[in-house]
Specification:
- This protein has eight helices and eight strands; from the N terminus they run ααβαβαβαβαβααβββ.
- The chain is of the alpha/beta class.
- It has one domain: 3-Layer(aba) Sandwich (Rossmann fold).
- α2 packs across α3, α5 packs parallel to α6 and α6 packs across α8.
- Its EC number is 2.1.1.222, 2.1.1.64.
Length: 234
């Protein structure tokens, strides 16, 4: 059984042609990408390192990390976004970047302890079993390597901001992008990481002001948040 929701794959597949439209359905991803890229780069050396981007979609983060000098493999199970990612990389002339249609669990069995850094951003809330993804990421990173996750907290504020606000009122995202029941509390994600043998080093929130259309990092993890983990040295 593949740890993927066919409806989720189809949903993002149908939006694939809009992935690199910076003012379209994926505008929020383009806006937060510099923030998350810098946050990752400050905690894990990217230049010359091997990096895996799990659930890469159309390649926004994967391509940005390759531009920072990393050798990046982006993986996803949605075929159309991968085609878009490959095409955009070719048009951009970015080197050190490859994409594969493969489940993270399958890749973990094939290539354990192969990557200096693993990123899995905005993806855990779209799969049936997020703990399985976390465990696979832990197996894929080398001892001493970093693993980064981002997702959405599960509480009334997150429902109000991420679904009612972002999808219905502000229309920052297409309706149906997120399903509240799949949101993950930081304590739950830290538990998944601990079970997978990862140390949780840092938790940071990401906030948005709809008036100024500005995103920034903060200590408020009540809606969007990112987690930095490390696989201990053997």
């Amino acid at each position: 059984m593949t740890n993927a929701d066919p409806q989720e794959l189809e949903k993002f597949g149908e939006l694939a042609h809009k992935w690199w439209d910076t003012e379209g359905d994926f505008k929020p991803l383009h806006r937060i990408n510099p923030l998350r890229l810098d946050w990752i780069a400050q905690r894990a050396q990217l230049h010359g390192k091997t990096v895996l981007d799990v659930g890469c979609g159309g390649g926004i983060l994967a391509e940005a990390m390759a531009q920072r000098g990393a050798n990046v493999l982006g993986i996803d199970l949605s075929v159309k976004p991968l085609k878009v990612a490959r095409l955009h990389a070719m048009e951009s002339g970015v080197s050190g970047l490859d994409y594969r249609e493969v489940a993270v669990e399958a890749l973990a069995a094939e290539r354990p302890a192969s990557f200096d850094t693993v990123t899995c951003m905005e993806m855990l809330e779209h799969v049936p079993d997020p703990s399985s993804v976390v465990a696979a990421c832990a197996r894929l990173v080398k001892p001493g390597g970093m693993v980064f996750f981002s997702t959405l907290n599960r509480n009334a504020k997150a429902f109000l901001f991420a679904i009612v606000g972002a999808e219905h009122v502000l229309k920052l995202l297409p309706k149906g992008t997120h399903e509240y029941a799949k949101f993950i509390r930081p304590s739950e994600l830290s538990g998944f990481a601990r079970q997978a043998g990862l140390e949780t080093l840092e938790l940071v929130g990401m906030e948005y002001n709809p008036l100024t259309q500005r995103y920034w990092l903060s200590g408020d993890t009540s809606v969007n948040y990112m987690v930095a983990c490390r696989r201990p040295q053997a």
